[in-house]
Amino acid sequence: MKTRIRLFSVAIALCMLITACSSGAPEGGNSSGNGDPTQPSSQTQNPVEKTPTPTPAPTQENPGEVIDAELTAEVSFGNYPPDTAPELELDTFDRWLEILVTQYPNVTPIPDYYSYTLDTYTPRAVGGTAPTIFQPPFTDPQLLISQKLVGDVTDALEEYGLLEKFSPAFVDLLSDENGRIFGMPRDTYVLGLHLNLDLFREAGLMNEDGTPQYPKTLQELAEKGKIIKEKTGKAGLVFPASETFGGWLWTNIAWNFGAVGENALERQIDGRWVVNLTSEPAVAALEYIKSLKWEYDILNADATTTTWASAHTVLGVGEAAMNFAANDSVSNPTATAGLPVESFALVPFPGVEGKDAYALSGGTAYMFAPDVTTDEAVACLALLRIAGLLPFANAEIEAGMRADAASRRDRGVPVILPIPMWNDPEFLALQKAITEEYTNVDQRLYADYFDSMNNGTISLKGEEPVYSQQLYRDVTAAIERVIANEDSDPAALLGMVEANFQKFLDSNVNN
Amino acid sequence: MNIGGYNGRRRKYVRGQYTGVIREFDAKTPGVRAMQIFIYVLCGIIALICIFPIIWVFLAGFKDLREFMSSTSILPRSFDFSRYVYTWERLRIYNNYLNSLYVVAVSVISALIFNGLMAYGLAILKPKGYKVLNALVMLSMLIPSTISIVPLFVNIQHLDMGGFFLPLWLAAGANTFFVVLFRQFFESFPKSIIEASRIDGCSSLQIFSKIILPLSKPICVVVAIYAINGAWSDFLLPYLVLNGTKFETVMVRLYTYSTQQTATADNMMRSVVFSMIPPIILFFIFQKKLTTNIITSGIKE
Amino acid sequence: MTDMKRRLSNRSKLRQNAAAWMIMAPSIALFAFFIWVPLLQSVVMSLFETTNITLDKFVGFANYADIFQNPLFGKALVNTLMYTFWSLVIGFLTPIFMALVISEAPRWRGFFRTAAYLPNILPALAAVLLWSAFFSGEESGAINSILALFGAEPTSFLDKSWLVIPLIVLISTWKGAGATALIYMAGLSGINPELYDAAAIDGAGVFRRLRHITLPSIFNLGSTLMILQIIAIFQILYEPMVLTHGGPDNSTLSLMLLMWRYITGGDMDYGKASATGVLIALILLGFTVIYNILNKRKSDSV
After folding, report:
1. For the complex shown, is ipTM > 0.90?
2. Candidates 3.90.1150.10, 1.10.3720.10, 3.30.470.10, 1.10.510.10; correct CATH number of B87-296?
3. Class of domain C63-301
């Protein structure tokens, strides 16, 4: 059990190395997957402070308990559940705040409804109204750090004994070139396939034991989608081809067709970032999406305007049977769109016969306002500890985890394991035990998804290293074109995107 | 920007009055009769196209999510008001209504005072150098305000005015369109009245409050209606200033809801309905003023 | 004596001027804060390399050069011109047509006028969200369910590159045409009916009267409204942003949306965003200048 989790952690760690510098970091080159993240870089001024990971633990008797109880701080917590949130969720959050004030009488918590988006965050950070703690996706930390829009919390993490548990994988993602750390991982996701089992049943694609005959390969996905479309009249697959979503999913499909290694979409050759979208597998991936529309005709009606959020609704209300989505959004089709948990399943991302299978993995981080003080950061960490979100296996955190699991169960959200982010076997074991105790779903409907990561049938892979959002947007445009136009030529379209994106990289990274 | 000189002319019309190309005597020939019937049909189609989408969204609000996404019927299965109540309570729209009310109330006053005074200066007082000011005001009509929204927002933050209604209230006081409306109206005042009152010893402010204002009621009503509607519908600046605070207006709420991951299409449609109700009520109260008075001011927003 | 009088009146003039500026001072401060200063700031910003909104380094016109090299700029410019074209075809003629038709209805004119104006008072954002549900390609979309009454198969509307811009223009026309039509109707009602009567006595039929009396009399109004419409459609942002997100394949990407993307699209490049905004403003100024020249030439020749 323990070894398995450790192995798994290593897998995640490896994948995170690749994610590490994510989109938008002009210096992406020196921090992307080329080795030991703890290696000091030459500009480091204070080598003692900057080595975050394997330093011996700060001497602390009971990690994860109340520290500095008398500190004074005013902290605003971003992502306070909006008014629309289920009352249970609101209550839970309010209870955490209550506990926080009893433990830290001098801390004033300010709930902030603000939820991070790149466009709204900048003016706030500059104007000094950013919440003390907020949650950007893994694509943004490097950008925020390079633009000096987030605060350094290395000291607070150290004080809390968290630096030692930091998976090396996340160090690159969340630190600057001097090794100072600006945040910590919040959750991770791994792409898979959401299924609406009602439609699978109607199409006769269920086994007698109640498990779905889900597609193992992309080819099967097309065929099974066609069966569903013919039998039920509903779309086989909902594909969000708008904004950046289409390109995001396409990268995963392209990897599975073989756009890795030699054929990688983005590669650094002699210090220069080179984009390759016209390799045979990359083109095959776009051809595949085109065939879903024009050969198999299994896509939902408005693919080119479907967003990530609406795709989940389309699946949830039974207008489509499959959706490329991850473990972090299982509440959307179920609790939000009304699909009963027993009609929902999450299975691995389909591969391609004879090729290595990959699943895109990413997540969100906790980061802090640019002017955050260590005291404020400690108060924020205290709240996370109370909420059971820090990797300590103690009674208080267990209580937090139980409350969270119970709340999910009561809201009709599938209670499943999170994907681990911290190097702490004890904590991971506790998570598993609690999930099993509170679960409201048939674990077999999720087993293959989790097993595929553990038994190596699928490898986790982070997003393409530089300016991934830009890449997604450009590729999404090409996807929209092949969906809109039967005569479009995928190879030529990708050639155009490649040329433009290369020009973009040359002027933004390769200079 | 004066469009022709169609100001101030009101016409009463009697039912069945012929004011257009077709004269009453034309209507006796059968060909023109047929044309008239055709015209009524066209008018009917125009009215239908204009009104139908609004009725449709009201009806769509009665559907639940599954019905909304799957049913091909325009009519809902049942007229269940509890769905509207649910969305109203669940999204706590009443808070946003109150916020919008605050924004609208003060914005109207600010719009009347500041734009009115500006126009008074430009149209009547005309102090030395007013032409430069006039050119600056007109110039800002041509330039999309969106391009400077970012520096504006940062300035607001630097003055520590973010997160509250104040910037929105004040912004209503700097509206080129309102200045133009006022100015056009003021320009039609006979010069002699103002000169006479000056000789009587009135100061500029007194002239404004005692002479100009009482005579300007019609234009004030027009500006007020536009200001109410504008303050209610405005989105970009309120979004940047109020997003994430407890002061979000209805439009900000509508947008943030539409981008939320938990948004569902049925709640979305009902929120759209809620955002439309006040303007529609306002419209029906001031319907005559809007369709007769505003056109005479001869300007399109 | 006269000298002194003049000096006196000069002084009172001075005082009056000062008072006038004082009266306008608060309004001027507001205009400066909300419009002029930010505008200048963005022009300045367009000449700088930026880290979020702080200016790093003066780079002259490098931002502009970069924009011209961005293939999306050309696309957005062409799209914006397409918006303008369609808005002239659909959005310009529709209100004239509406005004003419409604003016000819002897009865219920008030009702038709009210109905036509109604969409205008709806919040822009609400209208776009409404129409996005209307144009849904699912069979439950409003247009599709109407088409289904006539036995048509459901079709997708928003994934057809050639169709989306006209559709977006239709939406903005739906919202704006009623108000414009009212202005035209005011213009039409200014025509002296005796002209029609005189022409009718001379034997002019309905259509000849329309051509020779009605249309010429609203020509000036039309040209002014046209330039206002061009200015408005050139700044189109919400419709493509909410309805199609600029897609499919950037075929609805407008210049304003391109600017918005510079801010929000992942690189937070306020320098280039400002430069794009300045370019839009310059193009609009260009239009206005051309319009004024044409207008002057016309009024000179009359």
Report:
1. no
2. 1.10.3720.10
3. mainly alpha
